[in-house]
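Protein modeling request. Please complete all fields; requests missing the sequence field cannot be processed.
Requester role: graduate student
Desired output: 3D structure, token encoding
Chains: 1
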Amino acid sequence: MSADTRREQLIEAAVQVIAREGADRATTRKIAEEAKAPLASLHYCFQNKENLLLAVFTQLSGEMPVEADPLEDESVSPGQAMEQRLARAMQWTVENPLRVRAMIEVTLWAERYDPELSVTFYEGFFKSSEAALRKAGTTLSDEELHSLVRVGMSIVDGLSLQMLTNGDKERALRDTATACAMLKAFLDESERNSA
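Delivered output (195 residues):
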């Protein structure tokens, strides 16, 4: 087995163990057992647990739908752009609850281990959301836009935690539709008032 294939296998095993037991209790031995790999191969590929968790963080951050999609319809309003981003993030959450649980665990671990690292995940979503809303023609000031995007990220975090807690994917999607309608109405009204 190539080192790259083994690395992927160990990262996936780490996601499983972290989602099941948390980042702190995910030992290298448990992860190697989950991967059905020798413990030595984990240490060969990652040297230590911290490097493996950083690789998991990077992998999951890359999977999350944070990049700004090109607007299919150039006439989409800022409210519609925000609605699309929020709905897309929550759809990914509903489709990937195990990965979301692992991402939350690793983000909290990163915040304790290297606070700047955890900030990078949120910064990516923040910047791409801002760019999408600017492209859609928002007239909000920078301060208003920053606040709106932070609220949107808080909604995704909160709805994700609720879904993980109660397991109700349908309710998560209904609540997402409500949140989308509220943010869209706020943005549409803000745009009308500034016009």
